[in-house]
Write a structure and sequence with these properties.
The chain is built from 26 helices and four strands. By secondary structure, it is mainly alpha-helical. It folds into two domains: 7-72; 85-498, no CATH class. The strands form two sheets. Strands 1-2 form a two-stranded antiparallel sheet. Strands 3-4 form a two-stranded antiparallel sheet. Helix 6 runs antiparallel to helix 16 (387-403), helix 10 packs across helix 22 (526-546) and helix 25 (569-576) runs antiparallel to helix 26. It is globular and about 80 Å long. It is found in: Membrane. GO terms for molecular function: borate efflux transmembrane transporter activity; solute:inorganic anion antiporter activity.
């Protein structure tokens, strides 16, 4: 069947038909029984039913495929170049000045909170990257990237609530690309990575120009998002084990045992303090709030100082490797700049492949972070957008490649935590009609909202960037790697604790009589259990891939699951509790 014509196209075809008939009426009619008006209607009907390929009016070159493609680029269509970018530029102009007018105590407290939740995971990944990338990337590179990209986004992005940093999935990807460079490609890691990030930069530009948000995010469902979140948790736990394994190989057995104690102690204390808000009536609520928000920082500071007390000070310990000057981690490098043009030409083109994989990972990760930190429950009111930030992300990604530092992108869970820390009760005046008198009255309505501003992301990013200075690098260098392992465990637990897969997994182990009531239209729990089992199995498969030579391709596997939730529609409808009408429609489609 040929695609239906829209109103504009149909009116144009009708006009063409009428003009064609008027020209034909000048020629003699043999039988004379058919009047010109009848001919016009017949041709119009023939045009609508038969399409442009067989029409005597529309040119033969206008095939249905060409018509469909042309419609996709019409004004307002999904692929119309720069459509979302123009809209985002208008939105930035509307909100930019007001974003700088708001600053108060809660904004400052949020900046301090996000500073700790951002820099601590960052230096944890730095410790792992230093070992797994042959000292090409270390603490100073991760701190430099997080601070620089954070400042750029706080100044120029359309979604200032989004927090940027070096992520776990990218660390895994970079480590495996380094392995391939050393064992298979036999090329320098930094030039290859620089070109990969440059290619990723212009690919981000294409996604922004052609409005990728409109035609890709409709396929991003909770199925793939939950898998991505669970994969993050598994990666965190795996990194903690790797950190302790390296510690075991480099220190005495007594020191290793204390490292295990330090890691578990850091983890358990952070978990305990993170629940301080539920300790009521113990302590004042502000004390409970402070203990909860700075749980990880308090735990880390305590276990950094503990090994220097008493007999523990005699134990040898592995600490975070830092620089004593503003200098790259690799002694062979003098400046933060990569001579990317020295890479052989064939590898410049081949680096498009890892560049595309990085683009897929960053685009998905950043879009999800931006969406989650601006959910309706946060009460965001200012105009936002996505295309402009994707283009800005492409700029920072290419810049990081040229500087020889790991690129930063939207962070989970730091981005939504930023929004949570800015929540407050706002009072709005609204006009309502009194049910008693029928008169219109002005009343105040309380609503939870976030402070939409740029000061908190700017301050936290600037604070992180300051840590590239030698004195503060020395402070970071006091951190034992066992504490970083404990922080990895804490990050994994915090991510796993809010993942719905965990709760549905517990439901699989619970007797049916003890389970909560089923959503409307769902007959039993087997559909939900099957849906959960598929998610867990796929997470295991993807994690296994990260341990093999095919590890750089793991983001592609995640993207391949886009829309899977729709294919397993019955399971998801059962999970979401959709009404019986939609359930019957799914059954008619054969999704049983």
């Amino acid at each position: 069947m040929l695609p239906a014509l829209d109103d504009t196209t149909r009116s144009g075809v009708a006009d063409e038909s009428e003009r064609g008939v008027e020209e034909d009426t000048t020629e003699p009619v043999i039988h004379g029984e058919i009047n010109p008006r009848q001919i016009t209607m017949l041709e119009k009907k023939f045009q609508e039913n038969s399409g442009a390929t067989c029409s005597s009016v529309t040119p033969h070159s206008e095939t249905p495929l060409k018509q469909t493609i042309k419609r996709q680029f019409n004004p307002g269509a999904k692929l119309r170049p720069f459509r979302l970018l123009r809209q985002d530029v208008r939105n930035i102009r509307k909100r930019y000045v007001s974003d700088w007018r708001l600053f108060n105590q809660l904004v400052f407290a949020s900046a301090v909170y996000v500073f700790f939740t951002n820099i601590l995971p960052g230096i944890t990944f730095a410790s792992d990257l230093y070992v797994r990338t042959g000292r090409n990337w270390g603490t100073i590179e991760v701190v430099f990237s997080t601070g620089l990209c954070g400042i750029i986004f706080s100044l120029f992005s359309i979604q200032p609530l989004t927090i940027l940093g070096v992520t776990g999935p990218f660390s895994v990807l970079a480590e495996n690309i380094y392995e391939l460079c050393e064992s298979s490609f036999h090329v320098d890691f930094l030039p290859l990575m620089a070109w990969s990030l440059i290619h990723a930069g212009w690919m981000h530009y294409l996604l922004a120009v052609f409005n990728a948000h409109d035609w890709t995010m409709q396929y991003v469902t909770t199925f793939s998002a939950d898998i991505f979140s669970l994969l993050n948790s598994v990666i965190y736990f795996h990194k903690a084990i790797q950190e302790l394994q390296r510690n075991h190989a480099q220190v005495s057995f007594a020191s290793f045992l204390y490292s295990v104690i330090g890691a578990i102690g850091t983890f358990l204390l952070a978990v305990a303090l993170s629940t301080a808000n539920s300790w009521k009536p113990l302590f004042h609520r502000y004390i409970r709030m402070g203990l909860s928000e700075y749980a990880a920082a308090i735990s880390i500071i305590l276990f950094i100082g503990l090994p220097h007390i008493g007999e523990l000070a005699t134990l040898d310990k592995q600490t975070l490797v830092v620089q004593t000057s503003f200098h790259p981690s690799d002694p062979a490098r003098n400046v933060f700049f990569v001579k990317f043009w020295e890479l052989p030409v064939q590898w410049i083109f081949l680096s498009i492949i890892p560049g595309a994989i990085i683009t897929v990972l960053f685009y998905f990760d950043h879009e999800i972070s931006s969406i989650i930190c601006t959910l309706p429950r946060y009460g965001t009111a200012k105009p936002g957008g996505f295309a402009w930030d994707i283009m800005l992300l492409g700029t920072t990604t290419a810049l990081c490649g040229i500087l020889g530092i790991p690129p930063a992108n939207g962070l989970l869970p730091q981005a939504p935590l930023h929004s949570e820390s800015l929540l407050h009760i706002a009072r709005h005046k609204v006009i309502v009609t009194s049910p008693e008198t029928g008169e219109r009255e002005v009343t105040c309505v309380e609503k939870q909202q976030v402070y939409e501003q740029r000061w908190s992301p700017l301050l936290q990013a600037a604070g992180i960037l300051i840590f590239v200075s030698p004195p503060l690098q020395h402070v970071l260098g006091l951190t034992p790697t066992s504490v970083l392992a404990g922080l990895f465990l804490f990050m994994g637990e915090q991510s796993l604790a809010v993942n719905p897969i965990l709760f549905r997994f517990f439901h699989m182990l619970t007797p049916p009589s003890e389970l909560p009531a089923l959503p409307k239209g769902v007959r039993d729990h087997w559909g939900i259990h099957g849906y959960t089992a598929v998610q867990i199995i796929m997470t295991g498969v993807i994690f296994y891939v990260t341990l093999t030579v095919a590890a750089p391709a793991f983001p592609v596997i995640i993207i391949a699951h886009f829309g899977t939730e729709r294919r397993y529609g019955l399971w998801m409808r059962g999970l979401a509790g959709k009404d019986a009408r939609k359930m019957r429609r799914i059954k008619r489609l054969g999704l049983k």
